[in-house]
Amino acid sequence: MQSTFLYSGAVLTAIWGIAHLFPTKDVVTGFGDISEDNRHIITMEWIIEGVSLIFIGFLVAIVTFIDPQTVVSGAVYIVSASGLLVLALISLFTGFKINFLPFKLCPFIFTGSAILMIVGSLI
C-alpha cells in the first residue's frame, strides 16, 4: 500500500510536469508583442517548472523502487512533498487568479501529490 501512494504521487507530479512542456510555445505567444529576451525568459521558466516536476516525480519513484524504507528515501519524500506544497502556495496566490483552468488546477495537483507522498512515507 505504501508504494501505491508513493508511486501515485510520483506519477501525478511527473505527468503534470510533462503536461507543462507541450503548451510552452502557445503560452509564450499568449504574451503578445514582447521583447525577444522576455520571450526567452518565459520559455526558460515554463520549461524549468515542467522539468523540475518531472525530476521530483522520477526521484520519488526511483527511491521507492530501490527501497522506500531507508532514511534517505524518507528524506526525499518529505523534501519533495514540502517543495510541492510551496509550489501549491505560490500557484494559489498567483496562477489561481488567472482565468485559465490548468493554472487553477496546479494548487490541487501539487497538494494532492504532496499528500500522497506524505501518506506513503508514514505507512
Question: Can you walk through the features of this model?
Answer:
The protein is an all-alpha fold. It has one domain. Helices cover 83% and strands 0% of the residues. It is built from five helices and no strands. Helix 1 runs antiparallel to helix 5, helix 3 runs antiparallel to helix 4 and helix 4 packs antiparallel against helix 5. The protein starts with a helix and ends with a helix. 28% of the residues are buried. The model has no long low-confidence stretch (mean pLDDT 93).
Mean pLDDT, to the nearest integer, reads: 93
Strand content: under 5%
Number of domains: 1
Q: What is the helix tally?
A: 5
Low-confidence stretches: none
Number of DSSP strands? 0
Structure class:
mainly alpha
Main pleated sheet: none
Percent helix range: over 70%
Shape: elongated
Output the helix-strand order: HHHHH
User: How widely separated are the two ends?
Assistant: 8 Å
Radius of gyration in whole Å, from Cα?
Answer: 16 Å
Concise summary:
The chain is mostly helical. It has five helices and no strands.
Topology:
Elements: H1 2-21, H2 24-29, H3 36-66, H4 71-93, H5 101-122
Helix pairs in contact: 1-3, 1-5, 3-4, 4-5
Notable characteristics:
123 residues; single chain; mainly alpha; 83% helix
